[in-house]
Amino acid sequence: MNIPKHVAIIMDGNGRWARRRGLPRKAGHIAGAKSIKSVVLHCNKIGVKVLTLYAFSTENWQRPKDEVDGLMKLIKNYLKNMRSYLKYNVKIRFFGDLSAFSEDMIDKMNQIEQEFSKNTGMVFGIAINYGGRDELKNAAKKIAFLEPGRNRRANG
What's the whole-model pTM score? Predict the structure, then answer.
């Protein structure tokens, strides 16, 4: 059997899933979060080397405040329970612009990365506060900063 080296999952459609079942959007987010561990464990078991979960994009901040608050609560609860992955030899990494989160959430993410840093199994990457537009903007700023003469006129 051919096993992919890297699997990426975008957490999208949880609200639509809930709506089709006559449930509030929050119920869809909770159901989506519940499915993560079984996916992680299965990917680890079959030999996937890297699993990337795109969990919360920069665009998600534009959702209604109560929904964002609910997502933050869900993420905090998930972070509290991540130690259960230790026995599976999974290495956990977070990426994205973490500066938008509370200090306690950032500390927890750093603590988790540190606790799991010596594990040698599958890498479980969690993209949080990521975004294509944001990445393009940051890349453009880096290019402008690293190559300041590039935008000048030929005779200027």
Answer: 0.78
